[in-house]
Write a structure and sequence with these properties.
Length: about 200
């Protein structure tokens, strides 16, 4: 898949995005002057799928990034879905649709009701880390560092790729990346069935 443009990604250079990812502990480095689309094309051509997932996690705007994490989570959840995980991904999706402070805090409450071992939990954490204060309500504000949300999105998507049937991880990553490209160009990112 050749990426021509990524209209939802505001950064002019891949270096800007990589700098945020590096602040989050990821080892992403782009050559100077390379656009986000060109950098992703290079990663995909080299089959560096994990790095491409990480890059998108920091490149997409907050609502789009959390939505992508939710889509990837839903791909991995199998019936019967444990209620805490269902509640976590539902709360993250609610924040995507209506990014209010109430919904942002509700997403974290739902994440805290899990064991933080699932993609759904990290999608909900990503919604909480998308902005606003990390401190409890009625306490002085503690702004979320810029890299936190991308870290949670990357955790959700990478975990969703390997959580069940890890032998299919690369196929999942390819499908997840196709979803991210669609979202980055204004689509809904809905995952197509394998082979579809």
């Amino acid at each position: 898949m050749q990426i021509e443009s990524l209209k939802k990604i505001a950064a002019a250079s891949a270096q800007e995005i990589c700098a945020v990812a590096v602040a989050g502990g990821f080892k992403l480095a782009a050559p100077e002057g390379v656009s986000p689309a060109q950098f992703l094309n290079d990663l995909l051509a080299a089959k560096n799928l994990n790095e491409a997932v990480q890059f998108f996690s920091f490149a997409l705007p907050p609502r789009e990034a959390v939505w992508w994490a939710c889509l990837c989570c839903r791909e991995q959840l199998a019936d019967p879905i444990p209620q805490p995980l269902q509640d976590a991904v539902d709360a993250a999706e609610t924040w995507v649709r209506q990014p209010t402070e109430e919904h942002r805090r509700a997403a974290m409450a739902r994440a805290q009701a899990t064991d933080f071992q699932s993609p759904a939990a990290w999608a909900a954490v990503a919604a909480f880390w998308s902005g606003g204060s990390l401190a409890p309500e009625n306490l002085p504000e503690v702004p979320a560092p810029a890299h936190l949300m991308g870290c949670a999105v990357a955790g959700a998507v990478m975990l969703a790729a390997v959580k069940s049937e890890p032998q299919l991880a690369d196929q999942r990553r390819e499908r997840f990346l196709a979803s991210a490209i669609d979202i980055a160009n204004g689509g809904n990112g809905r995952l197509k069935a394998p082979g579809g």
